[in-house]
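[agent] plan:
  1. take the single chain provided in the ticket
  2. run structure prediction with default settings
  3. attach C-alpha cells to the ticket
  4. add a short note for the reviewer (M.T.)
[agent] executing step 1
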Amino acid sequence: MGLVAVEDVKLDSYMNVGGYVLKTYFSNMMKIIVDRGLWNDLQQTMYLIALEAVNLGYVLPKDIKEVSNLFRRELSAFFINYGFVEKRKGFTSLEVFFDDIMNKKEEYNDV
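[agent] step 2 finished; step 3 output follows
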C-alpha cells in the first residue's frame, strides 16, 4: 500500500462500516481480543483498512458494499495472522491458554 494523503477525507464513516462488520461477523471474538491484549492491534488494523479503502477510491455511501467486503476480508486475515482458525462462520484459537482452562474450571465449579 502506498502513501495516502487523507487531509480532506474523514475516516469516521469508514470506521463505522468496519465496526458494523466487526460486530456482525466477528461478534464472538471481541472478548477474546480484549482478553488477549490485541485490541490496540485490531484498532490499528481497522484504520489501515479504512485508509486502504480511501486509497482504492471507494467513496461512501456509494461503495459501501465494497468497503464492507474489504473490511471482512482484511479482518479475517487479521484473525488468521494471530493464530485463529475459521470454523463454522466464526473463528477459534488452536492455542489453549492456561487462564482459559482455569476459567472454565471455575465456571463448572460454580454450577
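[agent] step 4 note for reviewer: The beta strands are 84-86, 91-93.
[agent] ticket updated
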